[in-house]
Amino acid sequence: MRDLRGATLPGKVGRPNEDAFAILPSLAAVADGATSPPQLGYGCIHGPAWYARQLVASVVAAHTDAPESKPADLLAVAIAVTTAAHAETCDVGHPGTPSSTVAIMTFHQAAVRWLVLGDCTLVVDAGHGIDVICDERLSNTSETERAAVKVPGGASDEVEHNRRIEALVLAQRAHRNRPGGFWVAAAEPQAAYEAYTGEIDDSGDGAILRAALLTDGASRIVDIYRTFKWNTALDLMETAGPAGLLDKLRETERADQTGRTYPRIKPSDDATAIFAAWTAGND
User: Fold this and answer.
1) CA-CA distance, 212 to 4, in Å (whole number)?
2) Could you write out the DSSP letters of every residue in 55-75?
3) pLDDT in tens, 155-201
4) Long-range interactions of 45-49: CB distance < 8 A, separation 24+
5) What percentage of the chain has pLDDT greater than the value 70?
6) Closest CA to 55 of 163, 143, 187, 177
7) 58-117 pLDDT, tens per residue?
8) 221 vs 33: CA distance, rounded Å
9) Cα–Cα distance for residue pair 106/26, rounded to 1 Å
């Protein structure tokens, strides 16, 4: 028996949520569409919110068609399908074509397979401590531009802040989906095979296993704010659901809206979390 629950919140009221998620009995997936300043363009009439939703829907469809497929294969198919869905109306070769980070779990006999691409996070409690998997290749690029945006308290005025965001996005585009840079879902299916992947042994003797998938807007409650450690974050999601974790996240952010205590690029980001608990060896 599996317990699979998810929740999502937009980063700002009145603005589209560019995260997406899906839960099936044998699949959990989250996606985080990459925001870009409108003046830089996407080459696309749809944008990142559409892309993330379309990508997750395509992962679900691919899994339904081939439930034994590995997550990287599911994602590769989903990228191809999503690219084809707007290739006739949009410039999918544009450097800012909509993209998304992704995390996936699939449940199979005796194993749970996972994938992390981009700065989503997978947290696993398999009874021998907490394992945390996050693709940090994005955060290891454009360090100068990123530091300029994360000055405590923000830039001196909104115009300067927007200029720094624009510079960061342009710098990141130069490294996106290139060797030595970072990889996300965008127009090329091959990016799926640059993801971090692995398996959780599910052949045990009835132990309860737990895991969570989080977009970076949700994982910051641990990795930036230090409100919880990962084991207590899992405990909270188990008792209050992922929505309970996101409520605590927003409480922390409301208390530090200018980023003086916790310097960050956005005061609040779209945030999505999925919690999973299941009995090992009882598929």
Assistant:
1) 9
2) HHHHHHHHHHH-TTS-HHHHH
3) 556 778 788 888 888 888 888 999 999 999 999 999 999 999 999 97
4) 45/86, 45/89, 45/90, 46/86, 46/90, 46/98, 47/16, 47/18, 47/98, 48/18, 48/98, 48/99, 48/100, 49/16, 49/17, 49/18, 49/20
5) 95
6) 187
7) 999 999 999 999 999 999 999 999 999 999 999 999 999 999 999 999 998 878 999 999
8) 19
9) 6
Query: Do residues 55 and 185 lie in contact, with contact meaning Cβ atoms separated by under 8 Å?
Result: yes
The fold adopted by the segment(s) 2-279 is Phosphatase 2c; domain 1 (3.60.40)
Question: Tokens in use for 172?
Answer: 């990141």
What secondary structure letter does DSSP report for 189? Answer: G
Beta strands 111-117 and 130-134, pairing class: unpaired
Strand order in the sheet with 130-134: 2-9, 271-279, 208-214, 121-125, 130-134
Burial of 73 (0-12, 13-18, 19+ CB in 10 A): middle
Residue 275 corresponds to which tokens in the numbers above? 């919690």
Tokens 């052949």 found at: 203
Nearest alpha-carbon partner for 198 in 95, 112, 131:
112
How does DSSP assign 233-247, residue by residue?
HHHHHHHHHHHHHHH
Domain ranges across the chain: 2-279
Rounded alpha-carbon distances, angstroms, from residue 93 to 8, 135, 194, 280, 283 = 30, 24, 19, 44, 42
Sign of CA dihedral 116, 120, 124, 130: positive
pTM confidence score: 0.93
Cα angle at 26 between 22 and 27, to 5 degrees? 30
The residue among 181, 186, 192 whose CA lies nearest residue 139 is 181
Q: Tell me the two tokens of residue 115.
A: 């994938």
Tell me the pLDDT band of 231, cut-offs 50, 70 and 90: very high
Structure tokens at 124: 């696993």
